[in-house]
């Protein structure tokens, strides 16, 4: 049942994004940013945690999950470090994902030869 929950919640997040792309004049970059910011807001208010526990990877892998992780890391760092945690918590919590993205982007750039679109 856990796989089914992850599938339908992640699928609904994708469906919402696709509807926004098709029905509005929002650019994909704005939609992605909106997803991250909404994950931060929902995570900050504690609304996203039950969804993440229910859907697992279906809620934590999309961009809203990245925003939730930023909010969660910031909350934890503020409890431990005070005001300084507001500046360091989000980066500390997401450092692994950011480092992996940079590493794999570099690896792909070394393997393939990018070309201009002309």
From TrEMBL:
Lineage top rank: taxon: Bacteria
Chain ranges passing through the membrane: 6-22, 29-48, 83-112
InterPro entries referenced in this protein's UniProt entry, alphabetically: Spore_V_AE, SpoVA
UniProt key word Magnesium: no
Keyword Cell membrane included in the entry's annotation: no
Record keywords: Membrane, Transmembrane, Transmembrane helix
NCBIfam families reported in the protein's UniProt record: spore_V_AE
PANTHER family (alphabetical): STAGE V SPORULATION PROTEIN AC-RELATED (PTHR38450), STAGE V SPORULATION PROTEIN AEB (PTHR38450:SF2)
Full protein name: Stage V sporulation protein AE
Taxonomic path: Bacteria, Bacillati, Bacillota, Clostridia, Eubacteriales
């Amino acid at each position: 049942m856990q796989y089914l929950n992850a599938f339908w919640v992640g699928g609904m997040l994708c469906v919402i994004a696709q509807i926004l792309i098709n029905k509005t004049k929002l650019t994909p970059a704005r939609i992605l940013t909106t997803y991250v910011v909404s994950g931060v807001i929902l995570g900050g208010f504690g609304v996203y945690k039950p969804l993440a526990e229910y859907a697992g990877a279906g809620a934590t892998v999309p961009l809203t999950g990245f925003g939730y992780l930023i909010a969660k890391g910031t909350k934890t760092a503020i409890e431990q470090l005070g005001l300084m945690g507001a500046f360091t918590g989000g980066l500390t919590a997401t450092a692994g994902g950011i480092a992996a993205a940079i590493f794999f982007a570099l690896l792909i750039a070394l393997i393939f030869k990018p070309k201009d679109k002309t």
